[in-house]
Amino acid sequence: MTSRPLAIDVKNTPLDNRYLIQLIVDNRNIGSKSTFKTCHNAQYYGQPLRPGDLSILGAKSLVAKRCFSIQPNTSDGQYSSHSQRHLARIPTASELPRMLDEANCLYWGTALMGMVYNLIDDPSHLLPSSAACASELESNSNSSSILSAVPRLRFVYCGLSVPVDGGGAVYLLEEAIDAPFTKYVLNNSLSPMPGLKPAQLRIATFLCFAQHAQYLLSEGKIFLSDFQGGGELLTDPQVITSDEYSNKFGQGNLSEVLDNFETLHVCNAYCHRFLPRNSFSRHDGSVDSKSIKSMTTASDMDLGTREPM
């Protein structure tokens, strides 16, 4: 049997674009299994970081994530109960493209959250209508608590661990999240998870605003969902795009959520503070770009091109 080539030619990749390490992974899973991945404590031994390199290998502690598929235990291939299914590992050559999608979601997640904070921090991106709304809300005692501090969040640093010999497991390495873990927003939702405590709810509410901002700033092409993490760190986002790009960001890219964004999204105090009023002026799936100063161009948001990791 001829093995499939890997998506990355590890052996011929220049050394300045990779690190050669020995990765030690604890096979015991951390927490509950996600829909597509298991998570494990990990450590590595190998060459030291180059000066100024912000590699994942500089993190205080690491976790290694690996994808899996769910296979039926019944002879007819049906899942008649949760007990009649088991996790199955997939071949390395198939595993790598899936993990590239996971890493790509984190890559885009970092960029899209950066757009949100650029909007917040640079007043030139606020139109008079939203500035007036901000002044109104600041005088409203009901909104003062949620607007008192903007959560400063970022996605974890990450990197792919690819076996040199092509025969081992492919892992997505991430810096470990030491704070209590919280699911803030589901990937099929534009609302905070129910039952959150006040501090968690404030973060979830801000992230729903972030979805609104990303939707507008990308002119209705893209936003993030499936927000989760702990402390200031987020992980495992899902990138939601229109249907034409639905195969670019993994299996959780639910395009119908984007198609119905203007109907499903409910503006909150952050939206009123940082975004113009009546930003959804049309309901034909398009966005009135005059309602906000775009921070991107069509080439900036070329979703058909996977950026290098």
Q: How far apart, in Å, are the first and last alpha carbons?
A: 31 Å
Query: Largest sheet, order of strands side by side?
Result: 1-2-3-8-7
C-alpha Rg, in Å?
Answer: 21 Å
E-strand count = 13
Q: Which sheet architecture does the biggest sheet show?
A: 5 strands, antiparallel
**Helical coverage, percent range:** 25-40%
Overall form: globular
Question: What multimeric state do the chains show?
Answer: single chain
How many DSSP H or I helices? 7
Sequence stretches where pLDDT stays below 50 over 5 or more residues? 1-8, 79-84, 127-142, 281-309
Could you tell me the mean pLDDT?
75
What percentage of the residues does DSSP assign to strands (E)? 15-25%
Structural class: alpha+beta
What does it look like?
There is one protein chain. A five-stranded antiparallel β-sheet has the order 1-2-3-8-7, covered by helices on one side. The protein has 309 residues and is α+β, with helices and mostly antiparallel strands. The radius of gyration is 21 Å and the shape is globular. α1 (92-121) crosses α4 (198-217). The two termini are 31 Å apart. 27% of the residues lie in helices and 18% in strands. The protein contains seven helices and 13 strands. The relative contact order is 0.15.
